[in-house]
Amino acid sequence: MSWEVVIGLEIHAQLTTQSKIFSGASIAYGAEPNTQACAIDLAMPGMLPVLNQAVIGKSILLGLALEAEIGRKSVFDRKNYFYPDLPKGYQTSQFNFPIVGKGRLEIEVDGVKKVIGVTRAHLEEDAGKSIHGAVTGQTGVDLNRAGTPLLEIVSDPDMSSAQEAVAYAKKMHELVQYLGICDGNMQEGSFRVDSNVSVRRPGEPLGTRAELKNINSFKFIEKAIEIEIERQIDILESGGKVVQETRLYDAEKNITRSMRTKEEANDYRYFPCPDLLPVMITQADIDAIRATMPELPAAKRDRFVSQFGLSEYDATQLTSSRAMAEYFENLLAKTDAKDPKLCANWMLAGFSAALNRDGLDVAQAPVSTEQFAGLIGRILDNTLSGKIAKQVFDAMWAGEGSADDIIEAKGLKQITDSSAIEALVDEVLANNPNQVAAFKAGQEKMLGYFVGQIMKVSGGQANPAQVNQILLSKLS
Amino acid sequence: MHTLTLKQMSQKLHSGEITSVQLTQHYLDRISAFDPTLNAFISVTPELALSMAADADKKLAAGQGEFLTGIPVAHKDIFCTDGVKTSCASKMLDNFIAPYNAHVVELLNQIGMPILGKTNMDEFAMGSSSESSYYGPTLNPWDHQAVPGGSSGGAAAVIAAGLAPLATGTDTGGSIRQPAAFCGITGIKPTYGAVSRFGIIAYASSFDQAGPMTRSAEDAAWLLSAMAGFDARDSTSLERPKDDYTTQLNQSLNGLKVGVPAEYFGEGLDPAVETQVKNAIAEIEKLGAQIVTVHLPNKDLAVPAYYVLAPAEASSNLSRFDGVRYGYRAKDPVDLQDLYRRSRAEGFGAEVKRRIMVGAYALSAGYYDAYYVKAQQLRRMVSDDFKRAFEQCDVIMGPVAPTPAFNLGEKTDDPTSMYLADLYTIPVNLAGLPAMSIPAGFVQGRPVGLHLVGPYFSESKLLNIAHQYQQVTDWHTKMPAQYK
């Protein structure tokens, strides 16, 4: 009998605010330990939290994108427990009245669409960080992260494979970035995924789950879930029992290992935080936020197809991130949208390849849309052949200036003068009498050979269409 | 100088007849003379006080003084003061010096009110006698055998003994009014949210409220006007225009409807206290008020509700005292658990531990609905009682405490009997209403207070009623003989 896999995800998305959720301290990444923690973050006696209102609008945006219920009365609760990096001895979070209620997100795996339920999304503050080993024999505490605003997005246990889990996580990752509410940086911990995995025989109640914590790449999430499923099935098939626990993924050994068990259930003694008033949200607030909703990926993709005549595939690729889509639209605007397909091809080939090669984000691309548009213009007016254009692009990427500067400096103008091309054709035919004879004997594939030779002697600059035309007339 | 009214003091400072330095030195001298016995101060800050007084004198000389400029003040040791120890009367914070001022302290500093020191209190404001202080109990100036009340007992004793003209206090379940009654002074707990809690070490956040402790209602009106006002750093602070509570002090009481709750004059109330309170109400009737009987049927639910909710909040508020970042840390902990356990076990006193345990229990998973949720429902019922009562009257009057000040040590071994000392004051905190205690006589040489409770934002009205009463009586001018 087969096994059924049940996966639910908890995603912590760090909201893109300037300051912390309850204090004015900065949340910028990478500062020296404890330089971005004010008296409130340190839980000094007498300090009180003040809600950073920006988090409300950002959360509602996500709620709207997930077609979720928005909590009209949203309450902050205290979750009480002791930990050195939790300065107040409680985490301010939401329990009974989260900001975002039930919602949904559609995913697609191998062409099959599936709706994943979103249980809720609640606001909370991050804890600090314990640093082991910095001081010999002791543990240091860095409270820079303490109070960083997080939106915890909890899914229903609706995913039944690692692929679905990753598709959901990626979709959510794309969505929060589109909405501009989270920068999605997994390396810096701005987007963290915890996976709850269990297996069961079809029809049986849910099995005991293990939680895989804070894995910072989609690839590792997939691997970790896969081997966790195998591990649980092995245990059950050999008659054992899965223990409810938190497990860590060891990428080097490709195993998961136990971090802590949950035999002693924590009692967090949740109660409404008396220092914060409930947040009351009106329909007018929701409408105002809806009005600021950016175009979401699916809508953008459809528009790219209908408005620019792109293929589904190209449109999907170009909308894979908001930055990519925006770059594309900026490029189109600067080329007066003369040839959207040409722009799309260049973005998805040369541009994407260069980004991948150098490990850069769109925002870090060394070629501006202005420069790029210059290059596209020179292709459209036949100054550059496709092949030479690639050379110019590479030079631009390397910082050698505008397309025109590079064409000028390297003398890369396409040769369109018929007499010049004719001379090149004559030269190649004269130098290859055997091949000419073969062609005349019926070997038509020689034509490609001649074109190649002509392009070679022209340094790639001869206009290929003209070369073809002149060559054929000479050979006939 | 300490027998002058606040108004006289202010006039003399503004006219140059006395300087703030002289006035401050006068009080510092009295503190040196009397406080070793009274133990009303945890910290005395003569250098700070005199330097602030010198600054105030400059301000006054330049004609920039306000009414309170140059008048010294004593802060309860629960208000954080930049550079001066703020212990909350706990060993846990015996070494704690805040790098910031409470909002109230900031406001009074700006006016130029020299800080004489920090007054004694029950540890973390938990108590009704000021005996749970790590620094030992404060004595009642009227009778050294008696407690001064709590938790703002030090502040009340300081005013009663003339060791400061003005003091700040906080009231979570009666901690301004009950010691004011026990020490024969005037104290007002404003509407919840009227005074910022920023920089006040939290006991039970949804109840805590700071207010003035003074000799008279008029003085209280001046100090409250200086302390109150919106503060963006406290989310529960009320966003409304700043009040001047001194402008309504001369209104006639004609037509005033005084509600006297039938339930407040029954079993448990000392008959001698009852007589004094009724006499005081009769005096107010003479001033033109009309007495009506009102009902607060859920009065007896207030204490049990309070002793679930306040400890619940306290158990969470006091989690931050873990020995990690500041305050007391146990010596040589073997591991993290040991650090937490011993720091808290050694740093907190018995009453604080008791309330943390009660609070943690009330919030725990199996008991949350039975205790915390139920207590919240009771809180609403008590609050609704007041709402209904105020449909029939403008102000409610009754006793502040069931007895005059009890003896030191009398109730320390019986926490529940101690909790009943706040029986009349606690309902007001559950509802968040303003209320005050004014001196209304003596029982066997110990003062008795009259309790005035009003609807939200009725501080001006309460202060006016109290002031009118104090115009025709002299209880508030009396001082214990040895402190005159």
> How far apart lie the N and C ends of chain B?
10 Å
Question: Looking across the biggest beta sheet of chain A, what order are the strands in?
Answer: 5-6-9-1-10-11-12-13
What's the alpha carbon Rg of chain B, rounded to whole Å?
Answer: 21 Å
The level of helicity of chain B is 25-40%
Please estimate the helix content of chain A.
25-40%
Largest sheet of chain A: 8 strands, mixed
Number of strands of chain B: 11
**Strand fraction band of chain A?**
15-25%
Provide the low-confidence segments of chain B as ranges. none
> What is the end-to-end distance of chain A?
72 Å
| Cα shape of chain A | elongated
Radius of gyration of chain A, in Å, reads: 30 Å
Structural class of chain B: alpha/beta
Could you say which overall geometry of chain B the principal axes of the C-alpha atoms support?
A: globular
Helical stretch tally of chain B: 15
Mean pLDDT of chain A: 92
* Counted beta strands of chain A: 15
pLDDT averaged residue by residue of chain B:
97
